[in-house]
Structure formats: structure tokens, C-alpha cells
Amino acid sequence: MQGTSFSQLTPIGFLQTFVLELMHACEEAGLAPAERLIDRIARSAARFFEEAFREEYAVEGALDPKRYAELVVGLKNHIGGQFSLASREAGCIRVVNERCPFGEGVKNSPELCRMTSSVFGGIAARNFGYAKVTLARRIAMGDPCCEVHIHLDPRVAGKVEGAEYLAPPPPCDRRAMDALQARIDEQMHRIWCQMNAHRHSRGSTRPPTIVAKSPAMQAVLQAIETVAPTPATVLIHGETGVGKELVARAIHAMSERCQESFVAVNCGAIPEGIVESVLFGHEKGAFTGAVEVHRGYFERADGGTLFLDEVDALTPAIQTRLLRVIQEGELERVGGHKTLMVDTRIISATNCDIEKAVAEGRFRQDLYYRLNVVKIVIPPLRQRPEDLPHLVGLILGRLSRRYGKPVNSVSPEVMSRLLAYAWPGNVRELENILEKAVLFAQPPEITDVPLPDADPAVGGQSWKALRRQTLERLERSYLEQALRRARGSVNAVAEWMELTPRAVYLKLSAYGMDPAKFRG
């Protein structure tokens, strides 16, 4: 699409691009859910469409609602739709469509409607800071037309259910990021010290710290600072061992509730028969063995924050009760008849594909929307190698104090092995490996690590994975240097790389890089 203007977009070109990018994403993601791939493609496409619109109509600065409406209506019509502006009210834009750009085939793939939602929401969030997109009517679901509501103000959107989009965090220089890291560390350390003031520690433990030298984890820090002061529920997604509870504690520490309790519960570890009692409490005599009143986790976290790890493990019945607590702020203990009011902020976490669980009916869709007001994704350790040396140093410092052994570093050969390993258990596995190594190491450094023996093509870092990781690092480094040299001009970078600007935008989006950071 190099050289293609906004007004020259065609439905055939768009669909061809969609299919090509979908195939490319499938190869990279390995049979990831279609919805996730569509979201990723739509966000990348939205950036391209907005840039094309701005260039053709010489638009600078943030779009106003009128210009935004012109963009989204014109965009959809140029690629084969029949959209029109139904109304533009305070905080909400309503658009209707008589013909789907995907044709009648959309009825066989209604998930393609997410393309519209993600494109509209992504553009709006970048220009207004927030957007919630509701697909009120859809041709894909048999309605005679499509009706899309784009809410631009969270106060106006209220409890309307829909896909929510937040503006990407502004680019930060190193000083700003260091200052953010220091603020979060200071708050977490202060809360940690208050919680442990009554304990007699021998100095072997230290306050928690989030290591964020990689761009991906720096984005997590920015998300923490943005969402912490708000009452919004947060859903944290990440593999086992990446530190989801640590991020939840950071959100609590940076919030106005920091002086109140932070209560963490692993929903998957509670026996199914007592989940209701554990979460919501029970009255005396509610069942055999209930000899006294029991305050559940929600009551204990009243005024503070409740962290629900592995929230996807909750049964449908418990999901229904949880939804009521979130919506109404009230609960009843098991065996009780008195309604109790609770003011608890919910932060939940999962390591599974919860969207798939919703699609399969294993997780309530309305509860998912309540929990997923803001989603924070923590990348696995293998995708953020910049963090690993700093994590190693931090962990070794703790272990050295715990065991009284002055082992504070690893040899270059060991560091190379650590960087090459896939870390399926993430930071938790790294801590376990380093603890074993410290026990048998001769000070002052570790010269060998007991990495598990695994089939290099399955459990460890396969040649294909290692090659991809190396290429990604080189590509990221080249893009950063090229953007600096070109002062943020994507067209110039595309010319040097012999790619289309669209392809470069896709790569920048995948790496979380903003060309605007390099301009000026």
C-alpha cells in the first residue's frame, strides 16, 4: 500500500491486506484465537489509516470529534461500506451502516466485527485518551444494519458494556522512566515496611521491586501509574511466574487505598466445596463445622484491594455472586440473611486465554467485561531479555544475604546460557535455578547453573526460537537507530529497509515503538 492515499483505499486491497496479515500473524502466534489476531491487525491498520488521513487532509494535532467522525465514516466507505453519521452528541458518536465492507460473508465470521471496534476505538483512544465502542446492531448477527456507538468520555460511558480502549502511554525518556520506577519502588517499599513492622526480620528479606529495563515492562509501569489512582477494575494477563501479584501490589501501593488492606487469594488453590465460604464468609451454623462467624476475603479487603489470581478457575455459581458484588457492592455470607456493603477494588489475574473461555461459555461474558475494564499484559521472561541481567543481580543479592554467601555475580559464560534459555517458568524458575547455583557456588561468582536438560526443540530454546529471538533483537535495534537518523520519518525508514510504510508501522506496533518519540 506504499503511496496509497486515504481516498484510494479499496475493499479488495483491504481484504487482501487483511488475509495476508492474518496469515502472517498466525505464523507468529501459532494458532492464536482469531479475535486476538484481528485486534492486533486492526490496531496496526488503524495507525496506517489515520496517518493516511492526516497526510491527505493536512491534519495536525489531535483530532476533534467532527474530524474523527469524518475519518471513521470515510474510512469505512472507502473500503466498501455504506456508513453515515447518525448523531454526534456530547461524549458519544453514533454511526450506522447499511452495507458491511466484508459483504454477506461476515455472517459466517461475526468475529470480524471486532475489526471495526478495534479500528474505531484505537483511533479514538489515541486522540481523546479514552474510547468505549459498543456494537448495538450488527449485520453479522442478522440485523438489517450496523449501529456503532463510540463513547469518548468514561463519565458518559458509565456502565455501558463494550470494548474499552485507553490511549497508549506517552513515550518517556530514560530520566522520566527512572523517576517513575523510583516513585513506584518508594510506594511499594513504604507499604511493605508498614506491613512488616511487627515482624522480627533478620534482614534476609527486602522490599519487592519490579525490574523494568525492557520497553515491554516499562509500558507495564506506565500502565500502573495511569490506572492506580482510578477505581477501575484491572485484569492482569501473563504466564505462570511472571509476577502478576507483584504488579497488583504495585497498583495497590500507588492507589488511594494504599493505607488499607491488600488481600491476595489464589482462586485455583481453594477446594471447590469451600470457595463460596472463603470468598464471601459464612454465619455460625451455616453448615456442619461452622462453629463461629467467618469473614470472607471480600470483607477483609473492605476499603482496600482484593487480588483474585487464577480468576478463570471460579465456577459459574461463584462467578454469578462475584458479578453481584462488583456491580452492587454488596454480599451475603453463606447461611446469612443480612446484606453487607463492601467497598473493595478488584484486581484479577489469569494465565489462560480467558476470551476463549468466554466464547466457549465457561466464563460469564458480563463478568469478563466487569473485570476487564483495564487489561495489563505482562510478557514472559523470554520476550524481555533486557530485564534478565538486572533480575539476576537482584535475586543474587537477596540470596547472598539469605545464605550468608558473598555470591553477587555470574560469569559471562553463565550469563550467555541464561540468556539463551527459554524460561518456561519465567522469573519463578529463574529464582529457583539461581538458588540452587548459590548453594553450590564458590564465591565470588557463579560459574555453573543447573539448567534442566530438555529436548532443544521442545522444552528448551530451539534453533528456530533462538533465531527468531536474535532477529527480533537486531530488527528492534535497527529500527531504533533508523528512526533516530530519520527523525521519526517512517517513509524514510521504509525506503532504507526496502519495505512499505505499512509494513514498518506493523513492526513498530509489534515492538511498542512510537515514531513520534524520535521527531523534533
Short description:
This protein has 520 residues and is of the alpha/beta class. It has helices spanning 11-29, 34-57, 65-78, 113-128, 154-157, 174-195, 215-227, 244-253, 275-280, 297-300, 316-328, 354-359, 365-371, 388-403, 412-420, 426-440, 463-485, 490-497, 501-511; strands at residues 83-89, 92-97, 130-137, 146-151, 163-166, 234-237, 262-266, 305-309, 330-331, 340-341, 345-350, 374-377, 409-410, 445-446.
Report on this model:
This protein has 520 residues and is α/β, with parallel strands linked by helices. It contains 19 helices and 14 strands. The strands form 4 sheets. It has a 5-stranded antiparallel β-sheet. A 5-stranded parallel β-sheet has the order 7-8-11-6-12. Strands 9-10 form a two-stranded antiparallel ribbon. 33% of the residues are buried.
Name its key features:
globular; 520 residues; 12% strand; alpha/beta; single chain; 5-stranded antiparallel β-sheet; 5-stranded parallel β-sheet
- Low-confidence segments, given as residue ranges, are 10-17, 29-33, 200-204, 454-460
Largest sheet: 5 strands, antiparallel
The pLDDT mean sits at: 80
Q: What's the number of extended β-strand segments?
A: 14
Shape: globular
Give the strand order of the largest sheet, numbering strands 1, 2, ... along the chain.
1-2-4-3-5
Number of helix segments? 19
What share of residues is helical?
40-55%
Query: What does the radius of gyration come to?
Result: 25 Å
